[in-house]
Structure formats: structure tokens, C-alpha cells
Amino acid sequence: MSDELKLSNQLIDDIRAAIASHDERADEDLIMVQYLSACNGFLLGQQQMPLTEKEQINQQLNDFTHHVLVDTDKQMQPPAPAVPDADAFGIWKPGDA
Predict the structure, then answer these.
(1) pLDDT classification of 87: cutoffs 50, 70, 90
(2) Cα dihedral value 33, 36, 41, 43, nearest 10
(3) Measured between alpha carbons, how far is 34 from 86 in angstroms, rounded to an integer?
(4) Per the structure, how many domains does the chain have?
(5) Domain, as residue range, for 40
(6) Whole-model pTM?
């Protein structure tokens, strides 16, 4: 498999537009994902190699998809609130709470 892919929002938008031009239902994210998954199976199925090898590659692609999903999900999560350091210090004055 490739060492580095150049994934970008522009690439995704271009792919979305191309698929949506063939089926307007592809505007829905889950329909779009089904098209992308079907394209993977279609292209892999056309390769001149034994089925067992195709299935191994398909499993690698599924694992890679899962890795990208988890990584993207983490990036979409809001940052955790900063926890004050237990060793913090300051100047205390009488009457301060």
C-alpha cells in the first residue's frame, strides 16, 4: 500500500461532487460512504489475483479505514479543559478565598 496519501477536504469535496453527479442521494453521508465502499470492492474485485489475496487486501483496507476513522474522530473532539497543576503557587493575602 501507499506510504503517504494526500487526504484533504478539497479531495473529499471533489469525490462527493463526482458521485453526487451520478446519484443525488449521495448528498447524504451514509449513502456516500456506501458508494465509496462499493467502489473499493468493485476495483479490488477486478484485480487479476486469487480471491484469497483480494480478501487479505480488503481486510487491510478495512483496518486502514478504521485507523483513519478513529484518528479523524479524535481530531473532531473538543480539547479537554485544562486541569490546574497541583503544584501551582501564588500570593495569598488575608481575606482571599
Answers:
(1) low
(2) 180
(3) 49
(4) 1
(5) 9-76
(6) 0.70
